[in-house]
Specification:
The structure holds 2 protein chains of 2 kinds. Helices cover 71% and strands 0% of the residues of chain A. By secondary structure, chain A is mainly alpha-helical. Chain A is globular and about 70 Å long. The chains are: A mainly alpha, B mainly alpha. At the A-B interface, helix 3, helix 7 and helix 8 of A face helix 3 of B.
């Protein structure tokens, strides 16, 4: 009787956290050399090749390729760096462009045929990126204000009355120094993780319903799930680009708030 | 006899509850952006920049929620 009502047969193994524990790339490879590090290395090579080829022949009348490169460059330069950091943005532009292209390309591996796995869906990669950003914005602040000046700058907003200091200083320290890198990395990780899990549910669940279950209703549901997975890929394309953009915007925002002058 | 048996992790239910707040918050942000754009279309670029940062900060709660749902969802089952 219960089998009649169960749409999803119970033998189906739903994708979960263990779907992200991948073995080493080939037999006998060292343990760190898995699909994630392979994709990261490939992305670095592709990004280097892209920017070097773009920057090689700068003509006054740009070719198609140079136009694409300049559009990408001006997007990061104008709508991220200049809007967020202000007049002193040129010093941080190379870092922002590197972060943006690395995160974007590694996110896009999630919808790239044959790879189909965003690198930041393993939490170690966003942790590393956020650590880099954390070191940079704290370093910028310390270089600008000095160690104690930066601590005061980061934890004490101007205009706070003195009796509020015991509440405000720990709160601001917690929010600006501790929570920022955690949310920065977890945001990228969780978006990529959840997106990849969604794709797995639709594709693997559809495959199970279509090929391994018997009733015709289940087979039809499997076909619908496969068609809908295309829409999920479209959503993923949007989310991946958006997350790369947000990661860079927040990096620029942290840098600008660390380097800001006292008002 | 129980009519129906539900198997799963309570952490996921907790995540569902936790996602209500950020959902409302993100909705409010973009509602304001739409209103602002309707009132003053030329200010759209400036508003979108702030809106994305606000969106990212509001969304952080839901993001922490999904991470914790997986952490606690799997320690609970054991």
């Amino acid at each position: 009787m219960s089998r009649l009502f169960s749409l999803m047969p119970l033998e189906f193994e739903p994708p979960g956290v263990e779907s992200f524990d991948l073995p080493p790339l080939y037999e006998g490879a060292p343990e760190w050399l898995d699909k994630y590090s392979f994709m990261a290395v490939v992305s670095v090579i592709v990004i280097l090749a892209f920017w070097l080829i773009m920057a090689r022949k700068n003509a006054l009348v740009p070719s198609k390729g140079q136009f694409i490169g300049e559009s990408a460059y001006f997007f990061v330069r104008n709508s991220i760096a200049r809007d967020m950091i202000g007049h002193d943005f040129r010093r941080y532009l190379p870092f922002l462009i590197a972060i943006f292209s690395f995160v974007l390309l590694n996110n896009l591996w999630g919808i790239f045929p044959f790879l189909l796995l965003p690198t930041p869906s393993h939490v170690g990669w966003p942790y590393g990126l956020a650590l880099l950003v954390w070191l940079l914005y704290n370093g910028v602040g310390i270089a600008k204000h000095g160690p104690f000046g930066y601590l005061k700058h980061a934890t004490l907003p101007s205009g706070v009355p003195w009796f509020m200091w015991p509440i405000i200083i720990p709160l601001e320290f917690f929010s600006n120094i501790i929570v920022r890198p955690i949310t920065l990395s977890l945001r990228l990780f969780a978006n990529m993780f959840a997106g990849h899990l969604l794709v797995l549910v639709f594709v693997l669940g559809g495959e199970y319903l279509l090929l391994e279950s018997e009733s015709i209703v289940n087979k039809l549901a499997g076909v619908v799930a496969w068609i809908c997975s295309m829409a999920i890929f479209g959503l993923e394309l949007f989310v991946q680009s958006l997350q790369a953009f947000i990661f860079t915007v927040l990096t620029a925002n942290y840098i600008s708030s660390a380097a800001a002058e006292e008002h | 006899m129980t009519a129906m048996e539900i198997v799963g992790s309570l952490g996921i239910v907790g995540y569902g509850l936790g996602a209500i707040g950020p959902g409302i918050g993100v909705g409010l942000i973009f509602a304001s952006v739409i209103q602002g754009t309707a009132r003053q279309p030329e200010a759209r670029g400036a508003m979108m920049g702030t809106a994305w940062i606000g969106f990212a900060v509001t969304e952080a709660l839901a993001i922490i929620g999904i991470a914790l749902a997986f952490v606690f969802g799997f320690t609970g089952q054991a």
